[in-house]
Amino acid sequence: MPKLTIDGIQVEVAEGATVLDAARQAGVRIPTLCHLENIQAIGACRVCLVEIESHRDLAAACVMPIADGMQVHTHSPRVRAARRTVVELLLSEHDGDCPTCSRNEDCELQAVARELGIRENRYPGEKSRRREDASTPALVRNTAKCILCRRCVTVCGDVQGVTALFPQYRGFKTAIGPAFDQDLATVACVQCGQCAAVCPVGAITERDQTDEVWAALSDPHKCVVVQTAPAIRAALGECFGYPPGTLVKGKMVSALRRLGFHSVFDTNFAADLTIMEEGTELLHRLRKALADGKDAHLPMFTSCSPGWIRYAEYFHPELLPNLSTCKSPQQMMGAVLKTYYAGKLGRKPAEMFVVAVMPCTAKKAEARRPEMNASGFSDVDVVLTTRELARMIRQAGIDFKALGEGQMDSPLGESTGAADIFANTGGVMEAALRTACELITGRELPFPNLHVRPLAGLAGVKEASIPITETVPAWSFLKGATLHVAVAHGLGNARQLIERIRSGAAHYHFVEIMTCPGGCIGGGGQPRLTSDAVRQARLAAIYQEDEHRALRKSHENPAIQQLYADFLGHPLSHKAHELLHTKYTPRPRVS
What we know:
Blueprint: E1 3-6, E2 9-12, H1 19-25, E3 49-52, E4 59-60, E5 71-73, H2 77-93, H3 108-115, E6 132-133, E7 139-142, H4 151-159, E8 166-168, E9 175-177, H5 194-198, E10 204-206, H6 210-217, E11 223-228, H7 249-259, E12 263-266, H8 267-291, E13 300-301, H9 306-315, H10 329-345, E14 352-358, H11 362-367, E15 382-385, H12 386-395, H13 417-420, H14 427-441, E16 461-467, E17 482-489, H15 491-503, E18 510-514, H16 532-547, H17 558-568, H18 574-580
Parallel strand pairs: 1-5, 11-12, 11-14, 13-18, 14-15, 17-18
Antiparallel strand pairs: 1-2, 3-4, 3-5, 6-7, 7-10, 8-9, 16-17
């Protein structure tokens, strides 16, 4: 392994590593504005310049391969002066509106400028052209704030495989956006928000809907209720100085009550409900295919990730019959709140205002889908990201760390460990298998601690096979069969898995797709910047939450059982179809 010296520290690194990799291994920080972990670097921002002995020019650390015996200086006078000039030139074009920008104090350009001691702009001049695009329900673009780092281009193209964003024009006129300078709403954008999650400045952000929530909370004629997704409890604390993966469910509930919500519910309840509906749907498709020999549109794909749904509608409309017809837990919860819960309160659906706190910007677009109106009104009125909720808590002057441990309201706040793991890649599949396998065999899923380990972790595509050696009488036709399942997270990985299925190279019965890397814990609305280390910490927290539950299988949730007894009847009933299921529509890639 090559050895080199960085600021007097000798470090041994793997062949093919870059100077930036070596510096991080040595514990030396080099600032960057364009680099993304695990993705080929492009050296666009030039902020990571370093000095290498025997090299005439400064080199960009993120793209400079290491060599044995290399002597690197990361903070020499020459390096500091060059970095300062680079950042000053970026600031000279950046029309940031820092005091009113949503990224103020959460801006990487601002942080690097502060680190370099920049107090004034030595290069005043023309600013970048302002092009504001608020055409989608989820995202807002402002080209005047863009520093052309191309992170959004990289994550949209290389990670998600959507390629909705491109660099256009040249020189000072260069702009990042959809082809031909179109609005995002006119192209195949799945609104996953990964572009907003990696943007170092405020050029792409989630659409802020906090004012709508404040207005609803102030309306005496509205009953404002909130639901929170499982991924929030493992990430919200990061906005208030907690380490990644700190579980803050109780403090979050207390904060929501302080904000003035009438009731605080757990989207986990609807995740358990999703498993009852989706698991039953899978079993019916298996019966149709294996017992009746009919086309059951297998494999069945999960439908709880709205970015994946839009991706399928844009790029794989032939697969739409294979998607589960279940709404996502967010939308199921909204439908139940505006019908069943509204009835309990003696309220009309029009009087209910449902807020969802989600890790995902695509959930904002999902809530606006015209078919999501089971009560005659939108299932969900407003979706806030984790970041937006943190802003509301600060605006209310709440000391988050000083809060006590609140409890979710019952019965729609009761859930199981199976619902917790919906936050993680592989979690929806594992939750479904916990219930489906027990219904088929009469026994628990035959994996230690109920975890299907082949489906855990951050590998892009994962698969597992579950042999069915015994069954209850109703499912005897499955005895001796093997259930084949697969999981993909990140749409680029999903595309590879779909290609294997279409070519006949892989055969599955059930497939989980999550839009964002890591699943919901890595969603586009989570605290920035989400590295693999952060994802692992959040994943571990969610599994910890599951393992400490008294009930860990969705069908064991007594509140779910009561909902069916009082209101829905049984999974896939006529009422369940009306409230909890939906349909999909092929979308043209350019409108």
